[in-house]
Amino acid sequence: MLVNASLRHRNSDLTHHLIHADRFESTATTTVEMPVGMVASDRSAVLGRDGFMFLIGGSNDVLAQYSPTRGDEFEIAAQWLKVVGDRVERAKRAGVRFHQLIVPEKISILPELYPTPIAAPTRLLDHLERELLAHYGSATYTSARQVFWGLPDRRAVCKRADSHLSPYGTYHIFRYLIRELFDQQVPTFTFDMNRASIGDLSYRMLGLFVPETYLEVDPANLPPFCRGAIKASEFVPENGGHMGRRQVWKNPDAPIAEKVVVFGNSFFSFVETGQSTLSWWFSRWFREFHFVWTNEVDWEYVAEEEPSLVLWQGIERFLAVVPQH
């Protein structure tokens, strides 16, 4: 046991040093050839082509959602349409704009890299997106899947060992939203600065928290106003969990002089996590930005804050659970 503990500490130290180093050194990492199709011992993840790991299990039983015979997608989509309709109406009564964003699974973004042929996206997301766009249009709904499929380098959208997006993928969602909702152009950035982080799928696949490298924008190449973003306040629930946690960021130098309130999850996350999160980008471009980690829209909070825009963000694998508000 002492030997195992010593090894764990050593592995942890190596990973910590790589992630927090001021400068990334390519000689600090190496590659390993592994068979495509390897499945995690708990059946929660699978190794696809080009080193991309895919979430397939977990509490949401992700792979089962891609079944062509699931059969409940029309009923669930109808429930979602009612919820979105209620959200749009409540937003009108509150005098604010409402927008909804759904981030697709990695399988739906890169189905060609999944180990075996698979029909993607899930039937539920496919049907729901068509209905939302038909009923409300792009002023109310953004299909991140369509944003990604319009890019020439779709592989750069995802991290290999993580179920979340790369800074490049997050940036393109943000850029689309700013153009669509505020009629402003976000500059074209070059993602050429190496960073490292621990992928949340690596432990599932390998039993170790393995770092992976990715590219982000060099802060020196960002607009000067980005340096003005500061955290104005934060609320952390008593249990210390994510659900219900809230951050407020302000930037007096921001190019968009509006207040935005976002209800979402780990794809927005906390600004400190960096450019892989939508919150990081929003905190730089808006005069005031609120993020609340929740699956619901808190209309009392909206009434208190009186933002110009309320944005709700969800993900494909959570669509089977329809919120009340």
Please give a handful of descriptors for the protein shown.
325 residues, alpha/beta, seven-stranded mixed sheet, 9 helices
Order of helices and strands: HEEHEHHEHHEHEEEEHEHE
Which structural class matches the secondary elements?
A: alpha/beta
Rg estimate, integer Å: 20 Å
Shape: globular
What is the CA–CA distance across the termini? 49 Å
Question: How would you classify the quaternary structure?
Answer: single chain
Q: Total strand count, please? A: 11
How much β-strand is present in the residues? Answer: 15-25%
Low-confidence stretches: none
> Counting H and I runs of at least 4 residues, what is the number of helices?
9
Helix proportion of residues, in percent? 25-40%
* Mean pLDDT across all amino acids: 93
Largest beta-sheet details: 7 strands, mixed
Strand order of the largest sheet: 4-3-11-9-10-8-7
